[in-house]
């Protein structure tokens, strides 16, 4: 076992060697521009892109023509939301999203607010799921888009996508989902789920960074988005720019591997995750964040009360994890996702996200359990709050000097 | 962000972790920060008849830099007179630990903890509390 151990697979994943192998020729001998229609170099590249498009389409149950390649999920989110806002301007200007969305969605919506969009930010319940009745109540005749993520990046909670899309469609709005954390990890079928637009990315599913896709429905209804980049009219005019052929080949291969191995991988990872979680929640005053019944198989988000996340991560020095602690961000604000669940700031500061992946072994999980337990105990020995808790002092009654 | 060697040293082998009897007349306790803000420091000093700090202990809830700042502060406090202790400036801690700008508030908190412990000691011993500049972070 090599140290440090990578348990941050929601941030990014290592490239699967099989994906790399598929990509390599497209950097060197097969370097052609897929838009070069008049020579063999172009044809070879175009063929590779077509094949990759099929591989991607097969994973999410759509047709090849519905895949628009982008630089990643952030660009796909931007293209979908801004593109719909522009394209459907004469129908309305109201968009519904949720407070726990990724910044790529939230900040895009904030940007559109300045351009005259009305945005509703739905709150989530304690378990991280949105309230369907609240969604229904927020729908208006001007609502053009509902954008709710599939699986959350911090807590792994899976939203009731089918029910959400049904409500959106009932009121004549499109349904878009940022499925960056879900595609390749759990079965996602755009038709069964009623998805009109869907953003996802290769590097979260053992593919390369810098490539992602936007699914855009072509039938029932035919969805259109206004291009956000002008140029050569690539990708059916929705996303100009020379195609990143090696990246696209990598995304295609990554999708194929996920499709073939997803069932087994999800079973293996959820078993490991459960092992990790049940061992760590044996520590006093530790809590799992988010709904445990509806969530991705490979994520555990746990708060260890009375220790601070960044300090804790420093003690877990052989583990690469992430924390909702403010100290890990430049803003000095703790995770807005955890706060949206109603977690107090101190519990948000005390959270650690463990993200397991394809290459995580049981030996690594066992090591992580021991390492984390030791770290939590070490930090609690140093914590005045833990001492006060143990003395039975009610911390909420103390007048803290806020700073 | 990478931590400096000194921060890692104090974090891994914190000096003077512990608790003094806060009821004792010759012990001053400073408890500063707030759980919601992600850092709380408790710093205690034991003072002899000559106004010299003979012992110092801390416990800190916070990031590595906060733990290191308070650990270093206790090291510096031991053997100092109250007046010398009052002269400890947060920027001294910043310099010694090579804290990056985003972590300066950890050193400010440590300075606040020192002053607050000294005040607690002063009040217990019938002296006036010193006017402390309002927490500036």
TrEMBL record, chain B:
InterPro entries: ISCU, NIF_FeS_clus_asmbl_NifU_N. GO terms for molecular function: iron ion binding; iron-sulfur cluster binding. One of its GO terms (biological process) is iron-sulfur cluster assembly. Pfam families: NifU_N (PF01592). The keyword Iron-sulfur applies. Keywords: Iron, Iron-sulfur, Metal-binding. Belongs to the NifU family. NCBIfam families: iscU. This is Iron-sulfur cluster assembly scaffold protein IscU. It comes from Pedobacter chitinilyticus.
